[in-house]
Amino acid sequence: FVNTGTIGQSDKFWGLEFANVWGPLSMQGEYGQIDVDTPFFIEGNPIFDGWYVNASWFLTGETRPYDKGGFGRVKVKNPVFKGGAGAWQFAGRYDVIDLSNNGGFVCPACGTQKTWLFGVNWYLNDYTRLMLNYNESDIDGGVNSGAHIKGLGMRAQVDW
């Protein structure tokens, strides 16, 4: 609901991230900032940033394997197709993107967006999961300023 469109010829990006797993609990987060190089701005180049923090917990005791900067496949203890209940996971996330420091660029959709997300994931087996997410976003600035957006998303995922 906030965006800049295409504005830069090049950019400089840097970011920090963290993640850790403690048994059935996992947390991760990331911060990133981008400095857009463009000759079109009188007040200097725009600098945008954003961040998120995410936490999840397996009610059924599974864990998310984490190694060398990435999460691996969840090993379901009691798969549905073998008579079990599968793995159940609750998740929450908060994220912010700030596109308001736009260097004087006329940007109708620039602003700040803050979003809460809550989800339930059901892992049927090691390769299949169903996800249900509810989110609420608040917009400050730009053409959508003052908007409060609610969303519900569902997804089925199979990987191999």
UniProtKB/TrEMBL annotation:
Pfam families from the UniProt entry: Porin_O_P (PF07396)
InterPro entries, A to Z: Porin_dom_sf, Porin_O/P
Protein name according to UniProt: Porin domain-containing protein
Taxonomy of the source species: unclassified sequences, metagenomes, ecological metagenomes
